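note to self: dont lose this again. the chain is below, predicted strucutre after it. 108 aa total, dont forget to put it in the shared folder this time
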Amino acid sequence: MINYTWKIKNLWTKTIDGQQDYVVIAAYDVTGVDGTFSSSLSNTAQFSTASVSEFVPYADLTEEIVLGWIQSELGENGVLSITACIEGQIESQKNPPVSPEITPLPWS
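---
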């Protein structure tokens, strides 16, 4: 079973409508771990003033709040796409694909 961890790496802010430190971009990592196998993806999410219904002062933000914004922006299909990609990478580690190899010509 793969355990997923979502982590915020950086936040970019600007002043909008007089509100200071409004988060407009968040960089995040998603890591999946299955025993000794792991894989991760990094990405950014952009937020518009319409994507967050109520302003949360920067000092009051928590990682859970920002992760909620990201997952809301991604939607269910976006979250599933990320976890499926990580799952595929871990599966490739567990069962590496067979690579073709050069074989001597039979008539040499």
